[in-house]
Amino acid sequence: PSPATVDFTRLARGFALYGQCLGGQPYGNGHINDTYVVNFDQAGAPVRYIFQRINNRVFKNVPALMDNIRRVTAHAASQAAKLGGGDVSRRALTLIPAHDGRPCLTDEHGGFWRCYLFIEKARTYDIVETPAHAREAARAFGNFQRLLTGLPGARLHETIPDFHNTRRRYENLMRAVNADPLNRAAAVRAEIDFARQNEPLVDVLAKLHASGEIPERVTHNDTKFNNVMLDDDTHTGVCVIDLDTVMPGLALHDFGDMVRSATNSAAEDEPDLSKVSMRMPVYEGLVEGYLAAAGDFLTGAERAHLALSGRVITFEIGLRFLTDHIEGDVYFKTKRPGHNLDRARNQFALVRDIDARQSEMESVAGRLFKEPAPPAPAP
Ligand code: ADP
Ligand code: MG
Ligand code: MG
What we know:
The chain is an alpha+beta fold. It has helices at residues 8-14, 62-83, 88-91, 131-147, 166-179, 189-197, 204-210, 251-263, 280-294, 300-304, 306-327, 339-356, 358-368, and strands at residues 20-26, 34-42, 45-53, 95-96, 105-106, 112-117, 122-123, 217-219, 228-231, 237-240, 247-249.
């Protein structure tokens, strides 16, 4: 339904929030959910909230997803409160439950709605323009992982199974190449060959995990710049939002996707590959911010593989775009013929550039992170 048909007053009555509903408008640039700002009057004082209709075509198991978000937001807030230092409601997303305690409501059309405190005096930005942007985004995602290191209770629901199973992504490509339903494979031999040559990349993170060198953690899984709120005045990272894909995962999945999405000097679908490169100052900003927040709880193996993670995740997403192109653009939305192929080529060009600068990138973490000195021996 269009915004005009959303009955915010009726929805608002279901949530445990302040004030009288004045109405809502579409808000922000999200591509997945329908997001609204909803205004309220609380005895003359203005209050506003974010209402979101959850995209249940993308997320098939909304109760599991909301169970993850309920636990993650509650734990992040309690940890932020323990750490002290300012307004907790700005440092962790606050989910407003329904009156009956449920984390979301259903409407008469079968839609699922949730409500968050509106984070004031902060906003999201779509494009990483400076190393400082990269640093603040990575710091925010590092802090988010930090707040969740001790999440009690059962393992979170794996709401999208095999999300970063890179081996599985590779096999899906090979299956698509063999089936070749639209006879597109012949024209993309070079890209398929590139995928084959880089096959060894697909197991590296899984092997590090299997050998016990890198642990499973709570990860965000959508670490794009526009999922971090930056303070309007200080431009520092305030809080991470968009928790739909929070799941068990590897820290390097999150960091690798930051590298993929933030360092590219061109848009993800830029067809002119001469414009695609890894912006080293942006990469340095990412490492600096991430290690400032997460450096002391990450394992040595995690810190040692930050550069590699960018290469792996960029390759993984390239595999997915190429697979979708060969299968006939069934998963990612396209705006022009060959759009997914452009995206795949773009990602693979970024992999090449990361590859060429791998040793330079590896030296960055060593330069920026100094192991804390061991405690002095007792006298
Ligand atoms: P999507 O999954 O569709 O990307 P998001 O959860 O990222 O949805 O929300 C879309 C936009 O709404 C964000 O980019 C941000 O600008 C805004 N937004 C989301 N949550 C809040 C909040 N709690 N306070 C203020 N703005 C928010
Ligand atoms: Mg978002
Ligand atoms: Mg999202």
